[in-house]
Amino acid sequence: MNLAWWKQSVVYQIYPRSFMDSNGDGIGDLQGIISKLDYIKNLGIDVIWLSPVYKSPNDDNGYDISDYQDIMDEFGTMKDWEELLANVHERGMKLIMDLVVNHSSDEHPWFVEARKSKDNPYRDYYIWRPGKDGREPTNWYSNFGGSAWEYDETTDEYYLHLFSKKQPDLNWRNAKLREEVYNMMKWWLDKGVDGFRMDVINFISKPEIFPEGDPKPGKKYASGSKFYRNGPHIHDYLHEMNQQVLSAYDVMTVGEMPGVTPELARLYTEESRKELNMVFQFEHMGLDNGPYGKWDLKPLNLVEFKQNLTKWQKALEEIGWNSLYFNNHDQPRSVSRFGNDKEYRVESAKMLATLLHMMKGTPYVYQGEEIGMTNIQFESIDDYRDIEIHNFYHEQKEEGISQEKIMKSIYVKGRDNSRTPMQWNSTNNAGFSTGTPWIKVNPNYTEINAEKEVSNPDSIYHYYRALIQLRKNHEIIVNGGYDLVDEDHPEIFSYKRTLHNQTLLVICNFYANEPVFTLPATILYKSAHVLISNYQQSDGSLGEQLKLKPYEARVYLLTGA
Ligand code: NOJ
């Protein structure tokens, strides 16, 4: 296969705070990660994506950076980081870092300077506006609730923060700021990092004037996202970054892009445009959102889910490239969300993995996904740590919403679902820490843990290993065309991949029912065998009708069409 390495790779995301604590302070750290690299390597992983490890006051767990070129004290030192990189490389893996440059921390020296006076040389590194009629410059809400503008008394102006007020947005219109960012990126690349995951990178280009948004009935604040997502100069900035920094290195880039459409994703990832390699899109993650957004719960409609993922597969089939994910540190656990985390936890986790890993694109595995970790339900709001959850809780309380309704939303969608400590074994604190973990461990760790998974050949972990191995052994998985099969079936997600004279047929039952799959007459083949399945298949042949078991997944390799 003559393809870029990142098209043939599988990525593992580490959320360092919750991965492995080596010194008993209850917080995961770099030495902890080093101690688990063999576990990751044995899974078959090619690339590790490290969520932020930079200096940070941790208002948003490291996504608020006060020094881009230093390491957070709780995580270790620069020496530890260098040791981590060397150890990753020694094992033949690559390391990509999180690049968080839509905003910095308000404790970053640039912002400390900027807020001192209107003529401070750093003032224009951020976005300042005077108030309008005694209130905020616009009615936009922040993504973490409340206004997106914070009043700063010293200079009697407001600054923009699309996330928490401790995450002021950087002003990308300022060429000096852009140069500082590019120099910082080069500094990390020269240290040997293999690329970047870019945090909300399609938010960096703000409009020249800031219009009002349309509030939903009864709401004070409105979304400003149509003005700042994929803004006026976004392609110029990404192209400039590519030309000034990335093009000199053999690295991979993935841009996190809420609100990106397939049409835009083609522009961001078309090779000849020299912007990014791939993006994280969010459409499939929004299909269980009601009209009021993520906390407004709505059941998933499988047909919509199929149509959506298919739209992305087709849109980036020839131009650009897809990233494939169901989990990350901002999303609930997929086995609880789309599968069944009770009696069919193992089957449904394997089914979801099959569905994702047989698609075209670069798959991402989020820590704990490979052992089927589940959502958490803390009784008390005090046990939650996420700023987004707390802001949501307090706003809802003020609006008089019932405790039960608020907690239901948090149980289903809260980000802490995926941030409980990694479950390594059945000892105290799941083997994550000898101290008191910064967030409570999911009590199901005695049942669900890595040690148990690794020692059981039928486990979810070994199933992920097998899927990853299949991608390495079969070009059709990396490179084959994609087509949805039986698009209207309400319970089965089936698709085929084709390359030369081969067809890969993927059949996934999304529910605990036992539906019948009918082989379309258009699928012709001479021989068939099962490549992988989450149930024992007594015989590898493919009949015209298959009765599927709960959450059953089967992948057939058909030859000689
Ligand atoms: C997206 C990150 O994934 C999320 O964790 C963070 O809170 C926001 N961007 C702000 O940086």
From TrEMBL:
SUPFAM superfamilies: (Trans)glycosidases, Glycosyl hydrolase domain
Taxonomy of the source species: Bacteria, Bacillati, Bacillota, Bacilli, Bacillales
Catalysed reactions, as listed in the record: Hydrolysis of (1->6)-alpha-D-glucosidic linkages in some oligosaccharides produced from starch and glycogen by alpha-amylase, and in isomaltose
Organism: Mesobacillus maritimus
EC number, UniProt record: 3.2.1.10
Pfam family, one: Alpha-amylase
Family as reported in the entry's similarity comment: Belongs to the glycosyl hydrolase 13 family.
UniProt entry keywords in alphabetical sequence: Glycosidase, Hydrolase
UniProt protein name: oligo-1,6-glucosidase
